[in-house]
Amino acid sequence: MPTAESLRSDATFDQMDLSDEMLAALAKAGYEHPTPVQAGLIPRALDGIDVMGQARTGTGKTAAFAIPILEGLRGDVKRGPQALVLVPTRELAVQVRDEFVKLAEGQRVRSVALYGGKPIRQQIEKMRGGVDVAIGTPGRLLDLMQRGALSLGDVDIIVLDEADRMLDIGFRPDIEKILRRAPNDRQTLLLSATIPPPVERLARKYMDHPEVLNFSPAEISGDTIDQYYFTVDGERKFDLLVALLEREQPKQAIIFCRTKRGVDKIHHRLQRKYPDAECIHGDLAQRVRDRVMAAFRAGKVRLLVATDVVGRGIDVSGISHIINYDIPQFCDDYVHRVGRTGRMGREGVAYTFVAPEEGNELTRIEVRINRLLDRAEIAGFETIAKPTGDPSALDELADGEEAPAPKPPPFGRGGRMPRRYRRAL
Ligand code: AMP
């Protein structure tokens, strides 16, 4: 499982429109770059959108919801919490509370952890002066509500953390009771390592058109596939391909291009140097495709140039290398392409060629697979600069909409006010 450290990206917190206090707290915590979960979740949460995110622990998911929550606190003193975080265990309640305390450094924010196994009186006492963020297990939260010690009237955001675990433990009835008693116009974020049907049903019932983000590399057996990228200008790509093939001497490789014409062109040039190169795409007659695939499967063809559509279904166990000559247009295509190698626990390696202006595409792929690609170098090509991605492009990922620049009301979906504006009001 990737650690937060291994998930550092080139996006920065500065580009996220956060308050000076928050930037100072992040610097103090030593968080230099948002992890992919943070890069994906924070802008949406700030915009008031309901999000169902598939993310495991160790990915920085706690800060991903704590940052927008803290940014949205209205500053006025309320008795009841403005944010409620539901967690499956007392350990997690304490851990999440500590993260809130760390990120609220320099601000007057009252965060409490509420969980069973400790005298309820103490916790009621703790809340007496008012509370901004309540983090707790569903059973104890409900208990406190029933005793009149916890009111949800001021809640404008609820987080269901580790939702799958909470349902496994049997918290569904408690969670539903809590959600039913919270204000209807609240925002809801749900995080879960897996999204089985019960989690989906919960989301459908209690969330407002949730946007679904997947930060888990579901289809990639990430452990067995090394994934790299090269930065390269368009006109040097072919030379880089040849240099890479010379260095790697792949047992069998698929070279993916975006278009059929591109496949033909690369195949044509490649065949002059490598007679055992073939190509496959949708314009070729079926019998030609069958013949090429049979030869590839038999190991007679070593290099296969292909488009996504045809490349998807290829299940050949000897493929050692995937080369994305053109960066895929859609993140899912990356997952499918790279999934052609490393099959059945075998080792594989994937290289993606990225033009300097294609940094955004690279970032989107990294968010999709919840992993950063390593930069590769090869003699003669090392002078080229790193691609520059606009991190706001992350906002365009799933819905193809413009990156949400701060915009005037009406706010968000269903007229809900984005969290980033609340502080100013
Ligand atoms: P979590 O997935 O929330 O349990 O976080 C895992 C660990 O990553 C925690 O120890 C956090 O303090 C740490 N962490 C969270 N975000 C970042 C970041 N942007 N940079 C470095 N460490 C982080």
What would your notes on this structure say?
With 425 residues, the chain is of the alpha/beta class. It contains 16 helices and 14 strands. It has 3 domains: 4-214, Rossmann fold; 225-375, Rossmann fold, CATH 3.40.50; 391-424, no CATH class. The protein has helices spanning 20-29, 36-46, 61-72, 90-103, 120-127, 138-146, 163-169, 172-181, 197-206, 237-248, 260-273, 286-297, 308-311, 331-338, 359-369, 419-422; strands spanning 51-54, 83-86, 111-114, 133-136, 157-160, 187-192, 211-214, 225-231, 253-256, 277-280, 303-306, 321-324, 348-354, 374-375. Helix 12 (286-297) links the parallel strand 10 (277-280) and strand 11 (303-306). The radius of gyration is 25 Å and the shape is elongated. Adenosine monophosphate binds at residues 4, 31, 33-35, 38, 57-63. Residues 4, 31, 33-35, 38, 57-63 line the site of adenosine monophosphate.
Bound ligands, each once: adenosine monophosphate
The CATH class assignment of the largest domain is Alpha Beta
As a percent range, the share of helical residues equals 25-40%
Beta-strand percentage range: 5-15%
Give the overall pLDDT as a whole number.
83
**What's the count of strands?**
14
Distance between the termini: 41 Å
